[in-house]
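Input (structure):
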């Protein structure tokens, strides 16, 4: 049972992650920019399954820790060497595949520092 719904043994259940992460009942202004969104206090204030970029529970992605270390390393390296500027007037269209990405890429102006 899932709430009041009977779920058959072989049913496939899909969690709409994009919708979950943008649910206004779970977060204030989920589409807005909040630089403190992932601070320890903010994380503690929300249900642990309200943000699932790597899944959750016993089937959480085994590569999560590596991916988080990898992205921090890559971002730290890039922002030390470059500044990134959005293309004026560009409104990216989203494309859902294995992950969510801009349909036609995300062109940026890259300015080397020093």
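Output (sequence):
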């Amino acid at each position: 049972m899932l709430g009041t719904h009977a779920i058959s043994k072989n049913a496939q259940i899909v969690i709409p992650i994009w919708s979950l992460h943008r649910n206004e009942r779970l977060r204030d202004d989920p589409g807005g920019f909040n630089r403190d969104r992932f601070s320890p206090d903010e994380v503690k204030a929300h249900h642990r399954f309200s943000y699932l970029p790597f899944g959750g529970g016993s089937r959480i992605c085994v590569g999560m820790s590596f991916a988080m270390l990898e992205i921090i390393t890559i971002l730290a390296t890039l922002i030390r060497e470059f500044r990134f500027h959005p293309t004026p007037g560009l409104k990216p269209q989203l494309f859902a595949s294995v992950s969510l990405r801009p349909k036609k890429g995300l062109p940026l102006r890259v300015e080397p520092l020093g």
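Notes: The radius of gyration is 18 Å. Helices lie at 17-21, 40-44, 64-81.
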